[in-house]
Amino acid sequence: MNALPTIAFVLILASAAIQAAFLFRRGARLDPLSHWLVLAAAAALLGTTVMRSIEIGFPALTGTFESLVFYSMALCALCFAYRVQRRLPFIPAAQFGAALLAAVLLAVASSPIAPKQALPPVPALRSGWLALHVAFAFVGEAFFAASFVAAICALAAKDEGRRRDCDRVTYTAIGVGYPVFTAGALVFGAIWAERAWGSWWSWDPKETWALVTWLMYTLYLHLRLSRKREDRLPSWVAVLGFACSVFTFFGVNYLLPGLHSYR
Amino acid sequence: MLRFFTSIKLAAALIAILALGGAVATLVPQGLDAADYRAVYGASLGGFLVLSGMTRYFRSLLFIAPAFFFFANLSACTVNRFIRELRKEKGAKRHGPDILHIGLMLLVVGSLVSASGRREYAVVLAPGQRALLPDGRVLVLESFDSETYADGRPRDWTSAVTILREGRPEIEGRGIRVNRPLRLGAISLYQDSHAIEAELSGIRAVVDPGYPLVLAALVVVAGGAVLSFARGKGDRKP
Description:
The structure holds two protein chains of two kinds. Chain A is an all-alpha fold. Chain A is built from eight helices and no strands.
């Protein structure tokens, strides 16, 4: 079981290497292999999650390592789906960026900040609502990660046609991620908190930053609605929104607790 | 005035203010004594943080003022948009955003009811001991069971309780477990996982009149968010 995340990491890096090689080639031909490698990586990570779930007798979504594995899996699956779909413009650089992000997530999962030991959850975490909360939140964030790379491509685009394509991918990714993240991070999270502790919202740093992330994507949607199509501000907000989602996951856990405690 | 409150630019500005304020608030410890802030941040900065309301941000004007204007803007936009969609003669009517906005309005109202009416009581009991509930009923702890994993880590805590009304058992032998509260009408009883010593059980009683509305609002928000982005045939590309 321990080898599966490593196998997934190697597959993602191989996929990224192939994509990089084709990115710098002339011509519009797409490589025929990289998306299958990233799909295989997703399958390996799904296997990791399933096997750990069986080992601990509960959906393996209760720790940092498990969350990062799931997040990377969702992003890999999204990379594959994006490559095979035909409704949206395909932007190879965005695909490459998303694959790199999936690799970074696994690299962080392998670091000392994510203990690997498969431990059954303590009582507060033994809740189906928690499993739904984490799963939906990270699927939503996988779409936000996709919107982040597409937004970067939009900001770097040299011609308006390319920028519009990237903008359309950004908007579509957020359009899917936003309701999923709303359900997962806010709705299921509040329901779980009430059942576990009797308080559906307590303005603690994690909850507040999840709300800040949600507000950033709400801001993106309103800006995109109200400003001219050639305006780049929505793309900047999409980038900042993803930064907020990363801070919600990592920054709150590892930067804020050392500064203060809440009453 | 109406154009001001139905402005999407105002909405964007207020959303940005609320996001920024919330983010900054997490950098300042909340709810400590003034002396604590002066000790940590120095007399000048500490005093400024206290006076400005940053130390109790979510109860201060810094938060309440933009939140109030946000609610006003949200309400005005919701009504305006709903009427506009109803009057549409060409193209599909899309009410997903209206449902989402109505859900948010309900959430704000529910939050206010919750914030003003929520009461919480905590008690630590040994088996056989009793506690008076907020509505006059009596909670009797019959037994407390602590399950552990093979490595000694806690797996579950269960309090078996009897509820007496006017001296007579109304509920007997019901279990309260973490993540499985016992609902007694307006009162919910929670197995508190942070007050466990030896044979003692920590139980928390919460009265939150706003939670049912909050729960309904959250469902409406989630449904509205899904409908807002679900595209039917004939919808134009984003």
